[in-house]
Amino acid sequence: MDWFDGLLKPIMVVVAWIMVQFHALFTAIGLDPEGGAAWSLSIVGLVIVIRILLIPLFFRQIKASRGMQLLAPEMQAIQKKYKGKTDPASREAMSRETMALYREHGTNPFASCLPILLQSPIFFALFRVLIELPRIAAGTYPPIGPMTPELAAQAEAATIFGAPLSGTFMQAGDNWHIRVVTVVLIIAMSATTFLTQRQLTMKNMPPAALQGPMAQQQKVLLYVLPLIFAFSGVNFPIGVLIYWTTTNLWSMGQQFYTIRRMPAPGSQAEIAMKERKARKAKSHGVIEEAAAPVIIEEKPRGQREQPKRKDRNKPRPGIDQVKDTPAPPADGDSDGPSTPAPGAPTKPKK
């Protein structure tokens, strides 16, 4: 056992234990203990257990991805601000503002990679368990937890469409079943990887997040990752390819449910969710009332009323009293005798 196996030994024991328990379960319900169905379904059971344990991290991944999508316009503003500046001070200021933006929104680009990073040791542990099945069965490699030589011999003898679970494309020899099954699984693995990434980027991203350098990198990864998996998959055992394809199917279904129920604001998935709710409400006879338009009444703009001083309204002694005294009627305007004002000269009587 080399240092790598010694490092992965605890994880290899856990992986072997889960596989053996599921194998015992499927054998109890009537499957052939040496058949490929029982051991293949044991690998599928391993995927289910691991992915259930990673559900909290999956929601953290969704939250981090959504946070990165929402702050994409601000990231573009920072990149535009320091565009063309290569001096150390500008690069440090750009990194400082970027980290401050991450803290403000409570997100981190590395959080979206946590499920993949945590699955990597499990992936390599399963790889080592399947690769070492012939040696465990022959007694030249120590048993891995509950994976005894007898169980290892059963797993080694198990085949799926004529290909053993520990077989690889590069070491297939004359067994064309291994090559055919490997190619089919590599195509399925690459296709599910592509569809999962495309579903996440195209349906659950607002239009602003589909622009800029970060969006271009995601588009490149959308096409590059399946190619990487396709070329590297020829070195993996068939059991590992089953594990990887099942993981991709789980991820695709989990993301589909999350995007359908909790889409990112402003994304195509959110628009589709609103349309579904509107159709459902209409089918139940519920008509959503549209919001009443806000009417703003504009007053006619005339001449502005000049402010008046308060003392102008107060009566001024003397002048205002004279103004308020009614003028005497003119001669001939009244039928009765006129009364002269006090102090006025009187006319002599004729």
Can you give me a brief rundown of this structure?
The protein is mainly alpha-helical and 350 residues long. It has 13 helices and two strands; from the N terminus they run ααααααααββααααα.
Polypeptide structure, described:
The chain has 350 residues and is mainly alpha-helical. It has a domain at 3-71 and 107-281. It is 61% helix and 1% strand. The chain contains 13 helices and two strands. Strands 1-2 form a two-stranded antiparallel ribbon. The protein is globular. The N and C termini lie far apart (156 Å). Residues 290-302 and 331-336 have low confidence and may be disordered.
Q: What are the secondary-structure elements, in order, as H or E?
A: HHHHHHHHEEHHHHH
Q: Could you state the oligomeric state of the chains shown? A: single chain
Shape: globular
Total number of strands = 2
Average predicted local confidence, pLDDT: 77
Number of helices: 13
Proportion of helical residues: 55-70%
User: What structural class is derived from the secondary structure elements?
Assistant: mainly alpha
Q: Order of strands in the sheet with the most strands?
A: 1-2
The span between the termini is 156 Å
- Rg, nearest Å: 42 Å
Share of residues in strands:
under 5%
- Main sheet makeup: 2 strands, antiparallel
List unreliable stretches of 5+ residues. Answer: 290-302, 331-336
